[in-house]
Amino acid sequence: MKKRIIFLGILFLILISPIFSWSAHREMTEIILKDYVWLKNYNKIKVTPYTYNDPSPYNPAYAIPYRGEKIGDTIDAITIITRYVTEPDNGMDENLNLNSMQKLTGGSSGWRHQYYIALGGVLKLGEAPKRIIHFWNLAREAFQKRDYYWGFRFFAYSLHYLQDLTQPFHAYPMPLGNVIKNIFNLEKVIAQGENHHYTLEDYQEYQILNKNPAYIETLKKAKPYKIENPEEAGIKAAWTSRKDAGKLFEIQSKYFKEINETKNYKAPKDLFMGNNSTLKEEYDKIILRNLENFAGYTKGYIEFLKEFLEKLEGQEK
Protein backbone atom coordinates (compact mmCIF):
# COMPACT_ATOMS: atom_id res chain seq x y z
CA MET A 1 0.00 0.00 0.00
CA LYS A 2 2.82 2.36 0.91
CA LYS A 3 4.57 1.74 -2.41
CA ARG A 4 1.32 2.37 -4.27
CA ILE A 5 0.81 5.71 -2.51
CA ILE A 6 4.36 6.77 -3.33
CA PHE A 7 3.86 5.74 -6.97
CA LEU A 8 0.64 7.76 -7.18
CA GLY A 9 2.38 10.66 -5.50
CA ILE A 10 5.13 10.64 -8.09
CA LEU A 11 2.58 10.41 -10.88
CA PHE A 12 0.63 13.39 -9.51
CA LEU A 13 3.85 15.28 -8.98
CA ILE A 14 4.65 14.89 -12.67
CA LEU A 15 1.14 15.82 -13.73
CA ILE A 16 1.20 19.12 -11.84
CA SER A 17 4.46 20.21 -13.43
CA PRO A 18 3.75 23.58 -15.11
CA ILE A 19 5.82 24.93 -17.99
CA PHE A 20 7.48 27.90 -16.38
CA SER A 21 11.05 29.08 -16.05
CA TRP A 22 12.77 32.26 -14.96
CA SER A 23 11.03 35.50 -15.85
CA ALA A 24 13.01 38.33 -17.43
CA HIS A 25 15.31 36.08 -19.49
CA ARG A 26 15.99 39.03 -21.75
CA GLU A 27 16.63 41.62 -19.04
CA MET A 28 18.95 39.35 -17.08
CA THR A 29 20.86 38.36 -20.20
CA GLU A 30 21.27 42.05 -21.13
CA ILE A 31 22.77 42.77 -17.70
CA ILE A 32 25.23 39.89 -18.07
CA LEU A 33 26.33 40.64 -21.65
CA LYS A 34 27.16 44.30 -21.00
CA ASP A 35 30.54 43.23 -19.65
CA TYR A 36 31.55 41.28 -22.76
CA VAL A 37 33.60 43.72 -24.82
CA TRP A 38 34.56 41.11 -27.41
CA LEU A 39 30.91 40.58 -28.36
CA LYS A 40 30.64 44.27 -29.22
CA ASN A 41 33.09 43.72 -32.07
CA TYR A 42 30.34 41.79 -33.87
CA ASN A 43 28.36 44.92 -34.60
CA LYS A 44 27.70 44.79 -38.35
CA ILE A 45 26.06 41.44 -38.91
CA LYS A 46 23.90 41.09 -41.99
CA VAL A 47 20.39 39.76 -41.34
CA THR A 48 19.92 36.71 -43.54
CA PRO A 49 16.98 34.50 -44.54
CA TYR A 50 16.35 31.18 -42.81
CA THR A 51 17.83 28.45 -45.01
CA TYR A 52 18.39 25.63 -42.52
CA ASN A 53 17.03 22.10 -42.49
CA ASP A 54 16.17 21.62 -38.82
CA PRO A 55 15.32 17.93 -38.38
CA SER A 56 13.28 18.63 -35.25
CA PRO A 57 9.73 19.91 -35.83
CA TYR A 58 8.29 23.25 -34.75
CA ASN A 59 4.71 24.06 -33.85
CA PRO A 60 2.78 23.87 -37.18
CA ALA A 61 1.27 27.28 -36.40
CA TYR A 62 4.68 28.85 -35.73
CA ALA A 63 6.31 30.87 -38.50
CA ILE A 64 9.99 31.89 -38.26
CA PRO A 65 9.77 35.55 -37.17
CA TYR A 66 12.06 38.56 -37.49
CA ARG A 67 11.40 40.65 -34.41
CA GLY A 68 12.36 44.19 -35.31
CA GLU A 69 14.98 43.63 -38.00
CA LYS A 70 14.48 42.85 -41.68
CA ILE A 71 16.44 40.65 -44.08
CA GLY A 72 19.29 42.76 -45.44
CA ASP A 73 19.56 44.97 -42.33
CA THR A 74 22.64 45.02 -40.14
CA ILE A 75 22.47 44.14 -36.46
CA ASP A 76 24.89 43.46 -33.60
CA ALA A 77 25.47 40.18 -31.75
CA ILE A 78 24.31 41.38 -28.34
CA THR A 79 20.99 42.52 -29.78
CA ILE A 80 20.50 39.17 -31.53
CA ILE A 81 21.18 37.18 -28.37
CA THR A 82 19.05 39.33 -26.03
CA ARG A 83 16.21 39.64 -28.54
CA TYR A 84 16.00 35.91 -29.29
CA VAL A 85 16.92 34.33 -25.94
CA THR A 86 13.17 34.41 -25.19
CA GLU A 87 12.08 32.98 -28.56
CA PRO A 88 11.64 29.36 -27.39
CA ASP A 89 8.88 30.65 -25.09
CA ASN A 90 6.94 32.13 -28.02
CA GLY A 91 5.11 28.98 -29.07
CA MET A 92 7.64 27.18 -31.24
CA ASP A 93 7.54 24.04 -29.07
CA GLU A 94 3.78 23.78 -28.65
CA ASN A 95 1.26 21.45 -30.38
CA LEU A 96 3.75 18.72 -31.22
CA ASN A 97 3.77 14.95 -30.81
CA LEU A 98 7.28 14.28 -29.57
CA ASN A 99 7.11 11.48 -27.04
CA SER A 100 4.51 9.14 -25.57
CA MET A 101 5.39 10.51 -22.12
CA GLN A 102 4.97 14.20 -22.95
CA LYS A 103 1.49 14.35 -21.41
CA LEU A 104 3.18 13.90 -18.06
CA THR A 105 5.06 17.16 -18.59
CA GLY A 106 2.10 19.26 -19.73
CA GLY A 107 2.64 18.67 -23.44
CA SER A 108 5.37 19.12 -25.99
CA SER A 109 6.52 22.49 -24.70
CA GLY A 110 6.98 21.10 -21.22
CA TRP A 111 8.83 18.13 -22.66
CA ARG A 112 11.31 20.38 -24.42
CA HIS A 113 11.78 22.97 -21.67
CA GLN A 114 12.34 20.87 -18.58
CA TYR A 115 14.44 18.03 -17.28
CA TYR A 116 12.46 16.58 -14.45
CA ILE A 117 14.45 14.36 -12.06
CA ALA A 118 12.90 12.11 -9.40
CA LEU A 119 13.78 9.05 -7.31
CA GLY A 120 17.43 10.04 -7.17
CA GLY A 121 17.70 10.11 -10.95
CA VAL A 122 15.87 6.84 -11.68
CA LEU A 123 13.04 8.84 -13.26
CA LYS A 124 13.93 11.54 -15.79
CA LEU A 125 11.46 13.31 -18.05
CA GLY A 126 12.00 16.03 -20.61
CA GLU A 127 14.65 16.87 -23.16
CA ALA A 128 15.82 20.39 -22.34
CA PRO A 129 19.50 19.31 -22.30
CA LYS A 130 19.05 17.83 -25.78
CA ARG A 131 17.56 21.13 -26.98
CA ILE A 132 20.67 22.91 -25.74
CA ILE A 133 22.98 20.78 -27.87
CA HIS A 134 20.52 20.69 -30.77
CA PHE A 135 20.59 24.45 -31.21
CA TRP A 136 24.30 24.63 -30.50
CA ASN A 137 24.85 22.25 -33.42
CA LEU A 138 22.73 24.51 -35.65
CA ALA A 139 24.65 27.56 -34.40
CA ARG A 140 27.95 25.85 -35.20
CA GLU A 141 26.71 25.00 -38.70
CA ALA A 142 25.67 28.61 -39.29
CA PHE A 143 28.97 30.04 -38.02
CA GLN A 144 30.92 27.61 -40.22
CA LYS A 145 28.96 28.98 -43.18
CA ARG A 146 29.90 32.49 -41.98
CA ASP A 147 26.20 33.19 -41.40
CA TYR A 148 26.73 35.08 -38.16
CA TYR A 149 23.13 36.24 -37.88
CA TRP A 150 21.75 32.71 -37.58
CA GLY A 151 24.81 31.57 -35.66
CA PHE A 152 24.13 34.01 -32.85
CA ARG A 153 20.38 33.49 -33.11
CA PHE A 154 20.60 29.71 -32.78
CA PHE A 155 23.03 30.23 -29.91
CA ALA A 156 20.40 32.40 -28.18
CA TYR A 157 17.85 29.60 -28.50
CA SER A 158 20.33 27.12 -27.03
CA LEU A 159 21.15 29.51 -24.19
CA HIS A 160 17.46 29.78 -23.29
CA TYR A 161 17.15 26.08 -22.50
CA LEU A 162 20.34 26.14 -20.43
CA GLN A 163 19.04 29.11 -18.43
CA ASP A 164 15.73 27.28 -17.90
CA LEU A 165 17.46 24.46 -16.08
CA THR A 166 18.86 26.75 -13.38
CA GLN A 167 15.29 27.33 -12.11
CA PRO A 168 14.59 24.87 -9.24
CA PHE A 169 10.93 24.25 -10.06
CA HIS A 170 11.96 23.36 -13.62
CA ALA A 171 13.73 20.28 -12.33
CA TYR A 172 11.45 19.38 -9.40
CA PRO A 173 8.05 21.13 -9.16
CA MET A 174 6.93 20.22 -5.63
CA PRO A 175 8.04 18.13 -2.62
CA LEU A 176 6.69 14.61 -2.89
CA GLY A 177 5.48 14.73 0.71
CA ASN A 178 3.10 17.55 -0.05
CA VAL A 179 1.65 15.61 -2.99
CA ILE A 180 1.10 12.49 -0.89
CA LYS A 181 -0.49 14.60 1.86
CA ASN A 182 -3.08 15.88 -0.64
CA ILE A 183 -3.18 12.82 -2.86
CA PHE A 184 -6.97 12.62 -2.90
CA ASN A 185 -7.37 16.28 -3.83
CA LEU A 186 -5.63 16.55 -7.19
CA GLU A 187 -7.24 19.90 -7.98
CA LYS A 188 -5.68 21.40 -4.86
CA VAL A 189 -2.26 19.95 -5.68
CA ILE A 190 -2.36 21.37 -9.21
CA ALA A 191 -3.40 24.80 -7.88
CA GLN A 192 -0.56 24.73 -5.35
CA GLY A 193 1.97 23.83 -8.01
CA GLU A 194 0.81 26.67 -10.25
CA ASN A 195 0.74 29.13 -7.34
CA HIS A 196 4.29 28.37 -6.26
CA HIS A 197 5.68 28.59 -9.80
CA TYR A 198 3.91 31.82 -10.64
CA THR A 199 4.82 33.40 -7.30
CA LEU A 200 8.52 32.62 -7.63
CA GLU A 201 8.42 33.93 -11.19
CA ASP A 202 6.59 37.14 -10.21
CA TYR A 203 8.82 37.78 -7.21
CA GLN A 204 12.06 37.25 -9.13
CA GLU A 205 10.87 39.38 -12.06
CA TYR A 206 9.89 42.20 -9.70
CA GLN A 207 13.38 42.28 -8.18
CA ILE A 208 15.05 42.39 -11.60
CA LEU A 209 12.76 44.99 -13.20
CA ASN A 210 12.95 47.19 -10.11
CA LYS A 211 16.73 46.84 -10.07
CA ASN A 212 17.14 45.33 -6.62
CA PRO A 213 20.89 45.88 -6.04
CA ALA A 214 21.46 42.40 -4.59
CA TYR A 215 19.88 40.77 -7.64
CA ILE A 216 21.66 42.95 -10.19
CA GLU A 217 25.04 42.58 -8.51
CA THR A 218 24.64 38.81 -8.28
CA LEU A 219 24.18 38.64 -12.06
CA LYS A 220 27.12 40.97 -12.66
CA LYS A 221 29.59 39.39 -10.23
CA ALA A 222 28.91 35.71 -10.88
CA LYS A 223 31.95 33.85 -12.16
CA PRO A 224 31.64 31.88 -15.42
CA TYR A 225 31.26 28.13 -15.10
CA LYS A 226 33.56 26.12 -17.32
CA ILE A 227 31.54 24.47 -20.09
CA GLU A 228 33.03 21.82 -22.33
CA ASN A 229 29.80 20.11 -23.43
CA PRO A 230 26.60 22.22 -23.50
CA GLU A 231 24.27 19.25 -23.03
CA GLU A 232 26.17 17.99 -20.01
CA ALA A 233 26.14 21.52 -18.58
CA GLY A 234 22.35 21.52 -18.78
CA ILE A 235 22.07 18.20 -16.95
CA LYS A 236 24.42 19.43 -14.24
CA ALA A 237 22.43 22.67 -13.88
CA ALA A 238 19.21 20.69 -13.37
CA TRP A 239 20.75 18.45 -10.71
CA THR A 240 21.99 21.54 -8.85
CA SER A 241 18.80 23.58 -9.06
CA ARG A 242 16.45 20.76 -7.98
CA LYS A 243 18.14 20.69 -4.56
CA ASP A 244 16.50 24.01 -3.66
CA ALA A 245 12.97 23.23 -4.86
CA GLY A 246 11.79 21.76 -1.57
CA LYS A 247 13.14 24.61 0.56
CA LEU A 248 11.65 27.20 -1.79
CA PHE A 249 8.26 25.52 -1.51
CA GLU A 250 8.54 25.47 2.28
CA ILE A 251 9.51 29.15 2.54
CA GLN A 252 6.87 30.31 0.09
CA SER A 253 4.26 28.37 2.07
CA LYS A 254 5.19 30.38 5.17
CA TYR A 255 5.90 33.78 3.63
CA PHE A 256 2.90 33.88 1.28
CA LYS A 257 0.35 32.62 3.79
CA GLU A 258 -2.55 32.00 1.38
CA ILE A 259 -0.49 30.36 -1.36
CA ASN A 260 -1.55 26.78 -0.60
CA GLU A 261 -5.23 27.50 0.02
CA THR A 262 -6.18 29.99 -2.70
CA LYS A 263 -6.74 29.05 -6.31
CA ASN A 264 -5.03 31.43 -8.78
CA TYR A 265 -3.18 33.05 -5.89
CA LYS A 266 -1.65 36.43 -6.60
CA ALA A 267 0.97 37.52 -4.09
CA PRO A 268 0.59 41.04 -2.64
CA LYS A 269 3.29 43.30 -4.06
CA ASP A 270 4.10 44.68 -0.59
CA LEU A 271 5.62 41.26 0.18
CA PHE A 272 8.00 41.78 -2.75
CA MET A 273 9.39 45.00 -1.30
CA GLY A 274 11.49 45.95 1.71
CA ASN A 275 10.23 43.46 4.27
CA ASN A 276 13.42 42.65 6.16
CA SER A 277 12.15 39.51 7.88
CA THR A 278 14.44 36.55 8.47
CA LEU A 279 12.17 34.45 6.25
CA LYS A 280 12.45 36.89 3.33
CA GLU A 281 16.21 37.04 3.77
CA GLU A 282 16.38 33.25 3.51
CA TYR A 283 14.07 33.33 0.47
CA ASP A 284 16.23 35.90 -1.29
CA LYS A 285 19.37 33.95 -0.44
CA ILE A 286 18.07 30.81 -2.17
CA ILE A 287 16.85 32.69 -5.24
CA LEU A 288 20.12 34.58 -5.50
CA ARG A 289 22.08 31.33 -5.28
CA ASN A 290 20.16 30.02 -8.27
CA LEU A 291 20.44 33.29 -10.19
CA GLU A 292 24.18 33.08 -9.61
CA ASN A 293 23.98 29.72 -11.38
CA PHE A 294 21.89 31.33 -14.14
CA ALA A 295 24.61 33.94 -14.63
CA GLY A 296 27.48 31.47 -14.18
CA TYR A 297 26.18 29.14 -16.85
CA THR A 298 25.31 32.06 -19.16
CA LYS A 299 28.82 33.49 -18.83
CA GLY A 300 30.41 30.08 -19.19
CA TYR A 301 28.46 29.45 -22.38
CA ILE A 302 29.50 32.85 -23.75
CA GLU A 303 33.12 31.90 -23.04
CA PHE A 304 32.53 28.57 -24.78
CA LEU A 305 31.23 30.50 -27.81
CA LYS A 306 34.22 32.83 -27.75
CA GLU A 307 36.67 29.93 -27.82
CA PHE A 308 34.79 28.35 -30.72
CA LEU A 309 34.79 31.58 -32.76
CA GLU A 310 38.47 32.24 -32.07
CA LYS A 311 39.37 28.80 -33.41
CA LEU A 312 37.05 29.16 -36.38
CA GLU A 313 38.30 32.60 -37.35
CA GLY A 314 41.89 31.62 -36.66
CA GLN A 315 41.61 29.00 -39.39
CA GLU A 316 40.99 31.80 -41.90
CA LYS A 317 44.28 33.55 -41.18
Q: Could you walk me through the main structural features you see in this protein, from its secondary elements to its overall organization?
A:
This protein has 317 residues and is mostly helical. The chain has one domain (38-315): P1 Nuclease. Helices cover 54% and strands 3% of the residues. It is built from twelve helices and four strands. The chain has helices at residues 2-15, 25-33, 77-84, 108-113, 128-144, 148-164, 176-181, 186-209, 213-221, 230-242, 245-255, 278-314, and strands spanning 45-46, 74-75, 116-118, 123-125. A hairpin with a 4-residue loop joins strand 3 (116-118) and strand 4. The N and C termini lie far apart (69 Å).
Can you summarize this structure?
One of its GO terms (molecular function) is phospholipase C activity. The chain has 317 residues and is mostly helical. The chain has 12 helices and 4 strands; from the N terminus they run ααββααββαααααααα.
List the main descriptive attributes of the protein structure presented here.
P1 Nuclease; two-stranded antiparallel ribbon; 12 helices; 317 residues; 3% strand; two-stranded antiparallel sheet; globular; mainly alpha
CATH architecture: Orthogonal Bundle
Task: Please mark out the parts with pLDDT under 50 across 5 or more consecutive residues, or reply none.
Answer: none
What fraction, in percent, of the residue positions are helical? 40-55%
Following the backbone from N to C, one meets helices and strands in this order, namely HHEEHHEEHHHHHHHH
CATH topology: P1 Nuclease
The CATH class name reads Mainly Alpha
Strand order, sheet with most strands: 1-2
